[in-house]
Amino acid sequence: MDERKRDSIVAYLLRRMAEFDITPEAIAASIADDQRRVKAVRYRDAFGNGWDGEGVAPQWVVNATSAGQSVEHFAVQRAADASGNKRAVNWRDDPFAGSRLATIKPEYRQIP
């Protein structure tokens, strides 16, 4: 991105922030909340739906566990576990591997 385009975008953002009375501190707090929320996610499916493991399970977790999948299959992998070793996915334990459930995507979630 060239410098002129960047300056134009920054000026536009500053005008919009002033228009809606948004402070840089409010943006920083919002970003920090988002990052905290993302780090709190313990389970995630292939479509990016997340769950922190607390409270009522969302519908995607209920559907998967009803179909025989373990909730631990959806555990978010950290960069390294406590021992420093990376965890690997063992696809041989996936009950959906090779089935229609593994290949068909819901229409409402397809990305063009």
> What is the oligomer described by this structure?
single chain
Q: How are helices and strands ordered from N to C?
A: HHEEHH
Radius of gyration: 20 Å
- The class by helix and strand makeup works out as mainly alpha
Low-confidence stretches: none
Helical content, roughly? Answer: 40-55%
Q: What are the main properties of this structure?
A:
two-stranded antiparallel ribbon; elongated; 41% helix; 4 helices; 4% strand; 2 strands; 112 residues; mainly alpha
Write structural notes for this entry.
The chain is mainly alpha-helical and 112 residues long. Helix content is 41%, strand content 4%. It is built from four helices and two strands; from the N terminus they run H-H-E-E-H-H. The protein has a two-stranded antiparallel ribbon with strand order 1-2. The longest helix has 17 residues, at 3-19. The radius of gyration is 20 Å and the shape is elongated. It starts with a helix and ends in a 9-residue tail after the last helix. The mean pLDDT is 79.
Which secondary structure elements does this structure contain, and how are they paired or packed?
Layout: H1 3-19, H2 24-40, E1 43-44, E2 50-51, H3 59-66, H4 100-103
Antiparallel strand pairs: 1-2
